[in-house]
Amino acid sequence: MILLVASLASIDTQGIAKEAETKQKAPPRKVKAVNADSQSSPKRAKTSKLSNSLLASATKPRETKNTKLTEELASLSETDSQATKPNLSSVKDLAELGSESRREGKLTIGATARVQEAQSELLFQARVDTGAASCSVHCEKWKIDDESDSMEENIGKDIRVLISNEEQESRWVDSRIDQCVVVKTSEDREMRYKVPMTFRWNDFEKEVVVTLNNRGHMNFPLLLGRNFLEGDFVVDIEMGD
Q1: Spatial separation of the C-alpha atoms in residues 167 and 153, rounded to whole Å
Q2: β-strand pairing of 135-144 with 204-213
Q3: Is the pTM higher than 0.90?
Q4: Which of 62, 94, 134, 143 could, after both became Cys, cross-link 225 (CB 3.0–4.6 A)?
Q5: CA 119 to CA 172: how far, in whole Å?
Q6: What stretches of the chain show up as alpha helix (H) in DSSP?
Q7: Do the bridges between strand 112-117 and strand 122-128 make them parallel or antiparallel, or are there none, so unpaired?
Q8: How many C-beta atoms surround the C-beta of residue 37 within 10 A?
């Protein structure tokens, strides 16, 4: 009996020793300190963040839209101003291109030109006048077959005209009376004959109706008007003879 009790006591002593050893080996549990403030602060932080997020989402898109709209309007305004502002170099190029187009296929003549009457081969220092409807030549006198006192009745008749240049050289030219015109001068109104003549400038020849006139007191005995220039010439006032 005494031996049984001693064995049981030994077993209990060993079990307690093992339990104590196990407790010593187990890691200590961490105890979290929890208080009222630490539990409520996350909720406040979440509420604050949500409010800021809602406020930002409510205002930011409007600002972004307004900013984009302002930038687009500014861009359109800048584009319009650039479109309406003339490009001087382009305008100049366009003017030069238009000038070349007008000159294409045409001859360029100056403000004065050396022109020859084809039949008599008499040379004239002529003045080019785009303001005059027709040409005019200095005529000293004429001879008309079966001449009538009425100039209008002589229309269609043959005529010989004595023309002169600035060198006082004179030649006879045969033609016919095409028409009569009334010209208003500084002193009076007078009627003049108009006859066809052919003028030559360099290699170019053209027959035009010419007014017979006493141009002895003028610097240029021959005036080249639009009926000679039109369709064939471009006038360059800086160009020489």
Answers
A1: 34
A2: parallel
A3: no
A4: 134
A5: 9
A6: 2-25, 36-84, 88-103, 226-229
A7: antiparallel
A8: 8
Q: In Å, how far from its chain's centre is CA 159?
A: 54
Angle (nearest 5°) at CA 56 between 50 and 57: 90
Cα gap 195→192, rounded to integer Å: 10
Cα-based distances in Å from 142 to 8, 123, 208, 222, 235: 176, 19, 19, 17, 32
What does the DSSP 8-state code read for residue 152?
A: G
From CA 218, how far away is CA 29, in angstroms rounded?
A: 132
Each residue's pLDDT tens digit, 87-117: 545 545 545 544 544 556 899 999 999 999 9
Report whether 221 contacts 199 (CB < 8 A): no
For the chain, domains (ranges, CATH) are 107-223 (2.40.70.10)
What does the DSSP 8-state code read for residue 186? Answer: S
pLDDT in tens, 48-90: 555 555 555 555 545 455 566 566 656 655 555 554 444 545 5
